[in-house]
Cyclic nucleotide-binding domain-containing protein (Manduca sexta), 439 residues
Amino acid sequence: MRWSTWWQVLLVLQGSLAQSITPTVCDDEFCRCDAFTRVICNCTKAYAEVTLRPDGAYRVPSTCTGIIIDGCARVSFLPDTIRNLIQLRNVEIRNVQHVIINERALSWSPFPRENDINPGIRIIINNCTIDDIASHAIQGRVNDIIISNNKIKNMRPFSFSSLTGVKNIELRENDFENIEIQAFKKFATLNFLLNGGTIRTLPSRFLSDVEVTNLFHMEGVTVNYLYSSTFLVSAPKRVLIENNNIVTLEGDAFHMVTRGPITFRNNSVTNLSKGAFFGITVDLEISSVMGPQELLIDNNTVTHLTPSSLIFNRTRLTQRIDGLNLNVSCTCELTEEWRELMKSQVGTINCWYELNNHYVSLPTYMDSRCGAFKQNFWIFVVIGVVLALICVAIIIFFVVRRENEKKKKVQIVMPDGKTYRETEFHIVVERAELLTTDL
Ligand SMILES: *[C@@H]1O[C@H](CO)[C@@H](O)[C@H](O)[C@H]1NC(C)=O
Ligand SMILES: *[C@@H]1O[C@H](CO)[C@@H](O)[C@H](O)[C@H]1NC(C)=O
Ligand SMILES: *[C@@H]1O[C@H](CO)[C@@H](O)[C@H](O)[C@H]1NC(C)=O
Ligand SMILES: *[C@@H]1O[C@H](CO)[C@@H](O)[C@H](O)[C@H]1NC(C)=O
Ligand SMILES: *[C@@H]1O[C@H](CO)[C@@H](O)[C@H](O)[C@H]1NC(C)=O
Ligand SMILES: *[C@@H]1O[C@H](CO)[C@@H](O)[C@H](O)[C@H]1NC(C)=O
Ligand SMILES: *[C@@H]1O[C@H](CO)[C@@H](O)[C@H](O)[C@H]1NC(C)=O
């Protein structure tokens, strides 16, 4: 063998030796790698910190099929951590006190051609405090994103963007502190679920140009403020917004082009702004084949609203109101305000009837309490009572006077034996003249 060949062999040997000597994350104090080449970091110590990086010492090995992290104090994903992990299928983070996902840290597009048949990854984050999900943090060929029971402090613009082949995005029971605009940007998913938890503010374009091809479901979420155009969504076959507690819902909040019906059910809204549902419309193809789709507003309780809060785009949409509790005391002015809508909606619109402490339907209230006569009923009653009192007073006056007059009349018996009734009391001075014997 020639010297040059020997040198080549030596170089290769040296190279592989260097690789095997450089520690990977498998050598980290808190991590190990199992037989399936999964990286498992199960931190039992309170202070345990783990950093996941794409290269250098303690890098994630390129053969990694899964990253599973449990119970650490702090976990950081550095940029491009998973970019070259072609075998990767699974990223799971649980019970971590501080999670930081840097820019492009979970960006994964190993296949040159975009094709949904290519395998995708699954990202699960459960019971963590997520300090930051940076811009473009999560990108590429992702099957499922399941984020549940977390406290999420910051979600930046484009946190979830340029995703392909997504089946499910589930955000369950999270407490969101700060969400910036366009957190979910420009991709398609089969289902989008926002379930439970609390959100201070859902900003404009929280979902921006997101195509949801099957189900859009927002359920049981407590939201303080939901801005205009929060959900810029196209194509869902079903939209369900139910059991939410929303303080302020701005106009045009749901800017959606659906391919099916929309149900807004059993929500409690404090302020429902004008045109809250006005941004919802139906895909032209669907409406021309299947007819207009229905916007069902069922069993919601709303405190501040006007009929204009419920206006909708009639082009390819019909509306049915099946129970709307106006959390306002019933008055006849209120029935006046809602008269038009009561005509077009056979379903019940209720108002709060304070006397009985429950909701009554507006038409029932109107029939029993409103109208010129009914409204003035009490005035008539009062006037009647006053008139009756005056009559009684007059009658009593005359009766008393007559009685008095009777008493005043004195019966005088005159010497001739006749009884005279005099209306006037004349004092007759009787002169008793002495009989003289002279006569
Ligand atoms: C971590 O360890 C705990 C107990 O030691 C165990 O219950 C848990 O399943 C482990 N997690 C992983 C991901 O192996
Ligand atoms: C959630 O994570 C914390 C640590 O951040 C842990 O103490 C707690 O037991 C976990 N809860 C559940 C239900 O696993
Ligand atoms: C309606 O919402 C209330 C809470 O606001 C909940 O208790 C109830 O179970 C919900 N009803 C249905 C049918 O989901
Ligand atoms: C929303 O409701 C609150 C009371 O809960 C009220 O102070 C506020 O003015 C309302 N905002 C709008 C826009 O109606
Ligand atoms: C209607 O909404 C009220 C108040 O949110 C709730 O208590 C009740 O269970 C709901 N009824 C149905 C049939 O969903
Ligand atoms: C109503 O929806 C149609 C399409 O469905 C759209 O062309 C039109 O601009 C909408 N109207 C308004 C006032 O937004
Ligand atoms: C109804 O309004 C009252 C005050 O106006 C408020 O305290 C109550 O929470 C409201 N109920 C609902 C279900 O919004």
User: Anything to note?
Assistant: Residues 243, 266, 268 surround 2-acetamido-2-deoxy-beta-D-glucopyranose (ligand 3) (CB under 6 Å).
